[in-house]
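Q: My hope is that you can spare some time for a protein that puzzles me. Underneath my words sits a plain record pairing an amino acid chain with its backbone structure tokens. Those tokens are not coordinates but codes from a learned vocabulary of shapes. Thank you; the sequence and its tokens follow:
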Amino acid sequence: MRQLVAFLFPGQGSQRVGMGKDLYLNFRSAKEVFDEADEVLGFHLSRLCFEGPEDELVQTNNVQPAVLTVSIACLRAACEMYGTAVLQPDFVSGHSLGEYTALVAGGALTFADAVRLVRKRGQLMHEAAKQCPGGMLAIIGLDEQTVSEVCKVADVEISNINSPEQIVVSGQIEKLAKAKELAAANGALRVIPLKVSGAFHSRLMAPAALELRSLIEKTPINDPVVPLVANTNARILTKAADIKLELFDQLTHCVRWLDCVRTMIHAGTSVFFEIGPGDVLTGLLKRIDSSVQGYNVNDLKSLSRLKEITAKI
């Protein structure tokens, strides 16, 4: 009996200068993805991915289309190398920005529309962060209930539940300082400020969400060919209308990644491929359930191992 497979797609923070260059040089399909992104956006996103500079790449309005583009280039390269029949997921899911990549992979969004949306999404998030300055803290070693109590006292919000021991909170800078003190007092193992420009996935992103909503309403979104496991509620979505609501809500609501992975495992998924730069999601997967298999697919070397891996599924 074939094992169920999920494709996972990373979000902001997985980027690095040089990402995707070996794919561009070795696969026609990957080159076409980068060329299309450059044409759609009207600037050389490919050069920014390959050469940097890093301080420009990490800007929210640049890094979001960059990570999406590299992830799709990697997926297309894998399909070129092995054929689409070998790479047929049962579910797709992505962390924050990665949800848009998952929708491309699942057939709900075209790549061109997705790259336009996430470029604008990044710009809107950057502007919202200037209007309502804030940040994010990763709290290691506390459960959700304890972090929720910390949030109530400090007046911040849970923005990511990444694994049983890693929860991220968002809020205004001075309120995050209070949250950091309270988390430490409640026994947190570590409290780590994240290198982000704003309080993402919180009410401080409301100005961005309002403008993004109108853009999403104008964008063609289809029923996905492959079901999406949604960030905000970990539900399995198969209808375009539900996907639009998910994208509306995503900017101001918590990314419940732990629940997303558990939903897929509960449905019978035992093999996960993280497709795109970095290995953040594979690392989280090990902390969520060490019994399932997780693999990175992000460069020429990892692509070369796919045939051996998929033969076992």
Remarks:
- Residues 60-82 form the longest helix (23 residues).
- The radius of gyration is 19 Å.
